[in-house]
């Protein structure tokens, strides 16, 4: 890849798929600027996992605001950027899933979608989406290992539904290139060979 060209790449994937780790490693490898999802400082997330129906709309609006701001900064940046989770996943995966599970009211979901599409119309999509596809068993294992207190109440069926929504979204995504990485088969954090396989694929996609 020519160093003078600016790239905007986003890592997509379910909770526990390894997005943050891969984002950090790619940033270090290519000397790109990393943008991470606001999790640790999120004021709604602990309450959300205790009572999803009560806090779903507030949580999604918080994420939308945070990611819209980050997306604008990325577009304006003169450097290449790797982003942990795209703005499109908020509406197509998480808000949609909460609505289908009856944990977001219909009027709130409609209001949220209208707001999202109005905001997204001003944004340039990433040059490449890297989708970390992982089985629920892998996701649950990763979630247990990282030991976040507020994630202990995440239900298996919640992750299963998110996975189905991810597959639907990624199969219909047409805003740019998509690279699917099967995370169940790779240990890119501890195996340099596996990580190099991913970086080689990224280089090929961005040629």
What this model shows, in words?
α4 runs antiparallel to α5. The protein contains 8 helices and 5 strands; from the N terminus they run βαβααβααβααβα. The termini are close together. A 5-stranded parallel beta sheet has the order 2-3-1-4-5, with helices on both faces. The protein is of the alpha/beta class and 207 residues long.
Q: Largest sheet at a glance?
A: 5 strands, parallel
Coarse morphology: globular
Number of strands: 5
End-to-end CA span: 6 Å
Tell me the quaternary state.
single chain
User: What letter string, H or E per element, gives the SSE order?
Assistant: EHEHHEHHEHHEH
Q: Report the sheet-strand fraction.
A: 5-15%
Rounded average pLDDT: 91
How is the largest sheet built, in terms of strand order?
2-3-1-4-5
What share of residues is helical? 40-55%
Number of helices: 8
Structural class: alpha/beta
Task: Please mark out the parts with pLDDT under 50 across 5 or more consecutive residues, or reply none.
Answer: none
Rg (C-alpha, Å): 17 Å
Keywords:
207 residues, 12% strand, alpha/beta, 5-stranded parallel sheet
SSE map:
Blueprint: E1 8-13, H1 19-30, E2 33-35, H2 45-50, H3 52-76, E3 81-84, H4 88-100, H5 106-120, E4 128-133, H6 136-146, H7 156-172, E5 177-182, H8 192-205
Parallel strand pairs: 1-3, 1-4, 2-3, 4-5
Helix pairs in contact: 3-4, 3-5, 4-5, 4-7
Brief summary:
The protein has 207 residues and is α/β, with parallel strands linked by helices. The protein is 55% helix and 12% strand.
């Amino acid at each position: 890849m020519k160093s003078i060209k600016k790239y905007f790449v986003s890592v997509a994937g379910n909770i526990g798929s390894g997005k943050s780790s891969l984002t950090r490693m790619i940033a270090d490898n290519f000397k790109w600027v990393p943008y991470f999802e606001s999790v640790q400082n999120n004021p709604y997330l602990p309450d959300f996992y205790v009572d999803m129906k009560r806090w779903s709309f507030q949580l999604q609006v918080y994420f939308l605001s945070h990611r819209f701001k980050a997306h604008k900064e990325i577009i304006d940046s003169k450097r290449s950027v790797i982003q942990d989770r795209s703005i499109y996943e908020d509406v197509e995966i998480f808000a949609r899933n909460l609505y289908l599970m009856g944990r977001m009211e219909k009027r709130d979901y409609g209001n949220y979608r209208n707001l999202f599409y109005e905001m997204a119309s001003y944004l340039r999509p990433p040059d490449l989406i890297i989708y970390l596809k992982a089985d629920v068993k892998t996701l649950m294992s990763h979630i247990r290992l990282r030991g976040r207190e507020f994630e202990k109440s995440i239900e298996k069926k919640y992750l299963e539904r998110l996975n189905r929504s991810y597959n639907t979204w990624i199969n219909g995504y047409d805003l740019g290139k998509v690279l699917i990485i099967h995370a169940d088969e790779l240990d890119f954090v501890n195996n340099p060979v596996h990580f190099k396989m991913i970086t080689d694929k990224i280089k090929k996609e961005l040629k």
